[in-house]
Design goal:
Blueprint: H1 11-23, H2 33-69, E1 75-79, E2 85-95, E3 101-105, E4 108-111, E5 115-118
Antiparallel strand pairs: 1-2, 1-5, 2-3, 3-4
Protein name: Flagellar basal-body rod modification protein FlgD
Keywords: Bacterial flagellum biogenesis, Cell projection, Cilium, Flagellum
Organism: Alicyclobacillus cycloheptanicus
């Protein structure tokens, strides 16, 4: 049996579960409607918070990219993967496969975390 990540549950799936719960409830002891409304309100709240989190994340990425743009044309020193120090001018900035920024110095990409000095 696989586990379901609750953050991946869509509102459609939630409504389907709620309808199934209503269908199979004991007719002699029906659940209170307020419980269903409370669950629906919680789902709506969760969707709103998820959208807000995604918006904030996008805004943070845009702000970071704006800050990194200021490095263009700047002479920097970065630490290469072999531990050596490379000095050169930042010619561009690109995103790697993970969406992390890389500084292009002397035609080679270096993660922003490799930056050790700016002149």
């Amino acid at each position: 049996m696989s586990s379901v990540d609750p953050t991946q549950l869509s509102s459609t799936a939630f409504l389907q579960l709620m309808v199934a719960q209503m269908q199979y409830q004991d007719p002699l002891q029906p659940q209170d409607n307020s419980q269903f409304l409370a669950q629906l309100a919680q789902m709506s709240e969760l969707e709103t918070l998820t959208e807000l989190t995604q918006t904030m994340s996008s805004l943070q990425q845009l702000t970071q990219l704006s800050d990194e743009r200021q490095l263009l044309g700047t002479t920097v020193s970065v630490t290469a993967s072999d531990g050596s120090t490379v000095t050169g001018t930042v010619s561009s900035i690109r995103m790697d496969q993970n969406g992390d920024p890389q500084l292009i110095v002397n035609g080679q990409g270096y993660p922003l975390s490799a930056l050790t000095e700016m002149e």
